[in-house]
Write a structure and sequence with these properties.
Elements (H helix, E strand, L loop, with lengths): L1 H38 L25 H15 L8 E7 L4 E6 L4 E6 L5 E6 L2 H9 L5 H43 L1
Antiparallel strand pairs: 1-2, 2-3, 3-4
Helix pairs in contact: 1-3, 1-4
Length: 185
């Protein structure tokens, strides 16, 4: 009896393992691929513009954040007039580098400015934010992010457990067969 139940259970687990693995494979490929790109973002300027250096690291000599924000907008709008109206999302202050990054809401634009002089150091698209939102699922919204990432985490755990069972189950079957043969003789 235990022998037959074990065989049926293994067959069911194998089917579940296979289909769960197929669904999770897509999420894992996206997550792994974007994870590799994110690991390279500081080394590949196409993914994220290289961080420039400003002249002064002393914050007391810097312009006000509000002024740097306006200078960032002006630089973006002057270089790319089609971006007029693109609002500032956040400002990344880098005192040790003497610069700030003004990041915009639409199209992942970044303007790097010298913190003291307000001089434009760089105006470029920053693909790393888009890659990160694809990596964590937030590109499709917070509900998808929460659902997909939990599904991925629990799914990988379940694949590990069912994978162990698919490895261990046949060994257990061999042991039961051996006991059956021993008892039959």
């Amino acid at each position: 009896m235990a022998f037959d139940r074990l065989i049926k259970g293994l067959r069911k687990v194998r089917v579940w393992h296979r289909y769960l693995g197929l669904v999770l494979a897509l999420l894992l490929i996206i997550s792994a691929g974007t994870g590799i790109l994110l690991a390279l973002k500081k080394d590949v300027a196409m993914i994220q513009p290289s961080t420039q250096r400003g002249a002064v690291t002393d914050l007391t000599q810097w312009k006000e954040i509000s002024e740097l924000s306006l200078l960032g907008k002006e630089a973006l709008y002057k270089s790319y007039p089609e971006q007029i109206g693109n609002a500032v999302d956040r400002i990344d202050v880098r005192p040790s580098k003497g610069m700030v990054k003004v990041l915009f809401k639409k199209d992942n634009w970044e303007v790097q400015l010298d913190g003291a002089s307000g001089e434009v150091l760089s105006v470029d698209v920053r693909y790393s934010d888009w890659i990160e939102s694809l990596h964590d699922g937030s590109i499709f919204g917070d509900i998808f992010k929460l659902t997909a990432m939990n599904f991925l985490g629990w799914g990988v755990m379940l694949l590990a457990i069912t994978g162990f069972w698919l490895w261990y189950g046949p060994r257990r079957l061999r042991g039961l067969r051996w006991k059956r043969k021993k008892n039959a003789s």
